[in-house]
Design a protein that fits this description.
The relative contact order is 0.04. This protein has a 27-stranded parallel beta sheet that branches. It starts with 10 loop residues before the first strand and ends with a strand. The protein is mainly beta. About 16% of the residues have low confidence.
């Protein structure tokens, strides 16, 4: 049910008109633009104390009319009845003529009408930007600078003439990237420091017009929790940047990572050696968003973003969003993000390229990296692993992985002995493996691991899923294997609770992989669904299957080649309760139906043949190398068919 918003809420109006300028040869004419305009609020929620309510603002989208015009009524951004004031809307466009009108921020004061023609930022292009309009009363009209960040009319005098805008307006504290992440603007008491390629470190950094030029100066000026807002362009730094041990520091760029386009804000590190480009060790709530973070030196072998715990206090609650992380012409970085000894961090909508490792979790078996989320990320051109040594409780969702730089598979790889208990990988894709390059897409070990709804691509010589640690148990795989030589290998399970890989059960699932659920296997093209294999280096055999029944008394049968640990290479069904082998096939092809001499008083353990009542008359279907047998219970004769029924009488 929908009702009107509480009466305490006030509104403003945003309107405008978009036209194309078309040259007909006889002069310029206009044509209405078709498409939609969207106003996205910069806050997730606001309180309305007087109404005892919490409001969740939603984006508003309108369609341009036949004249290219639109009007929308929006909740006022300066409404004193709301718990947050002086926030903004991001205005974005979806135009049918293919033009890309850049998004921008605008404030909508209560009771006012803001027109697109005065709110839209205009690039100076080396000339003078002119805002056309009539003189108006004092009011919070928006004005934008080259970084698409608007001023707010906090203390400004009224315009004094056409096209004149006041110059002393306060800056919005975040750029449009804030809206893309749906995070709330900081409270007005939070500190904001601005950095811009057009700034100077002699400035105070408190407005974009007085922005600093370098990140180290911004860190020093910030001096604690707050936001470093980076302007559009490339901001270079040659020495490692440290925010180690801080809480609540955010480094944010201007949104602009789109398909086929470069980043609006680039943080470019030119340092060399093993030192981390950004040292965010032992931080709480560190955020990096809406930037391209790159290194440019071929001799850089450190970590691009270092979130490790190195002093005893866990790094926690870090958020890396909407970023590109990688090397510019160099793949030498040890890791683009290092999460060793960290907890509860998120990495969303990022792209990783050109490094030894994209994301590293645990440094080794004795370390930890717990409860992280990696979501909707893309990975390309790593030399060792895209995600290396994930830890416990990781969720990797909706990601894609290209082949390693060698062409081998290597999406998520754990070193031998490194466990990732409770790891969930879901809804992903990996592929483009080069034939013969080998590797495995997912090399994992531990308990409670799930790989769900993922397409696992491979090629000749590659493996889909390989378990690196024994025992590994509680494994769930519901995935599509495409082109892998081996689907699943080196699997530990119920019968393999030990550390000797040679006794592990091997599942070799060939392509194409099961269609359906449970044990439904279709179109296997003469490949084995399940294969147990002794690689020839061991003399003892193993159990391929164990069948158990606990109803009406315990039964258990081991099925395999020498499941008793023998050396003869005999296929056996082992009755492990009674210690008997009721069925065996030797290497030479002999079939044994018992390994036990029955007592004269035995009541079980016999071999039963089929019976009929009277003389058999049917012609049995021929089976090469065998003859059918039946016992006539009327005449007590045993019949064997060989071109006809032959019999022998029994007294």
């Amino acid at each position: 049910m929908t009702t009107a918003l509480p009466t305490q809420v006030t509104y403003g109006t945003f309107k405008g008109k978009l036209i194309d300028a078309i040259n007909t040869g006889a002069g310029e004419v206009s044509r209405a633009v078709a498409g939609m305009v969207t106003a996205s609020p910069a806050v997730n929620s606001v309180n309305i104390p007087a109404a005892l309510a919490v409001m969740l603002p939603r984006p508003v989208t309108v369609t341009l009319d036949a004249n290219g015009a639109f009007t929308m009524q929006l909740v006022a951004t300066d409404d004193p009845a709301l718990s947050i004031i002086n926030w903004a809307y991001q205005i974005s466009f979806q135009l049918n003529n293919g033009d890309a009108l850049a998004p921008f921020l605008v404030q909508i004061p209560g009771g006012s009408t803001v027109d697109l023609s005065t709110a839209n930022p205009v690039s100076t292009g080396g000339g003078v930007a002119i805002t056309q309009g009539n003189p108006g009363p004092t009011g919070p009209t928006a004005l934008f600078d080259a970084d698409a960040v608007p001023y707010l009319n906090a203390t400004a005098p009224a315009p004094t003439g056409p096209g004149v805008q006041p110059a002393n307006r306060r800056l919005v504290t975040e750029a449009s990237s804030l809206l893309a992440s749906k995070a709330a603007l900081p409270a007005v008491t939070d500190k904001v420091v601005f950095v811009s390629p057009r700034g100077a470190d002699t400035n105070d950094g408190l407005t974009l017009k007085s922005a600093l030029a370098t990140l180290p100066a911004a860190i020093t000026t910030l001096g604690g929790p707050g936001l470093i807002q980076c302007g559009q362009g490339t901001i270079s730094f040659g020495a490692p940047l440290s925010v180690a041990g801080t809480s609540g520091v955010t480094i944010r760029g201007v949104a602009g990572l789109t398909a086929g386009a470069g980043a609006a804000t680039v943080l470019s590190y030119s340092g060399t050696g093993t030192a981390s480009a950004i040292n965010a060790q032992n931080t709480l709530g560190f955020t990096l968003a809406d930037v391209m973070l790159q290194h440019t030196a071929a001799t850089f072998t450190g970590r691009l973003l270092d979130l490790r715990n190195v002093t005893g206090s866990d790094t926690a609650y870090a958020s890396i969003r909407d970023c590109y992380l990688g090397g510019s012409g160099a793949s030498t970085a040890d890791a683009l993000i290092d999460l060793d000894r960290t907890i509860s961090c998120e990495i969303r909508r990022c792209h990783f390229a050109n490094a030894n490792n994209g994301i590293r979790g645990k440094a080794g078996a004795a370390s930890y990296s717990n409860a992280h989320v990696v979501e909707n990320c893309t990975f390309n051109t790593a030399t060792i692993a895209h995600i290396h040594n994930p830890g416990d409780g990781w969720v990797i969702k909706g990601c894609t992985w290209e082949a390693l730089t060698s062409g081998a598979a290597g999406a998520v790889i754990s070193d031998s002995g490194v466990t990732a208990n409770g790891l969930t990988i879901m809804g992903g894709w990996c592929g483009d493996v080069i034939a013969g390059a080998g590797g495995a897409q997912f090399v994992i070990g531990g308990g409670g691991i799930s790989i769900l709804g993922t397409m696992i691509g491979g090629n000749t010589g590659s493996t889909g899923v390989k378990y690196s640690t024994s025992p590994s148990s509680g494994i769930t795989i519901a995935a599509f294997f495409n082109g892998c030589d081996t689907g699943i290998s080196h699997v530990g399970g119920y019968n393999v609770q030990n550390s000797d890989y040679s006794r592990s059960a091997f599942f070799n699932v060939a392509s194409p992989i099961p269609s359906g659920a449970e044990a439904q296997f279709e179109n296997m093209l003469n490949y084995p669904v399940v294969r147990y294999r002794n690689d020839g280096t061991h003399t003892y055999g193993g159990v391929a299957f164990r069948l158990e029944n606990q109803k009406g008394g315990y039964q258990a049968y081991d099925i395999g080649i020498d499941p008793d640990g023998g050396t003869a290479g005999v296929f056996k069904i082992n009755d492990i309760v009674r210690g008997k082998f009721p069925f065996q096939i030797t290497k030479a092809g002999s079939v044994l139906l018992s390994d036990t001499v029955l007592a004269t008083t035995a009541t079980d353990g016999f071999t039963y043949v089929p019976t009929c009542v009277g003389i058999p008359t049917g012609v049995p279907t021929a089976q090469a190398g065998g003859a059918p047998v039946v016992y006539d219970t009327t005449d007590n004769r045993l019949y064997v068919y060989n071109g006809g029924w032959k019999s022998a009488a029994f007294a």
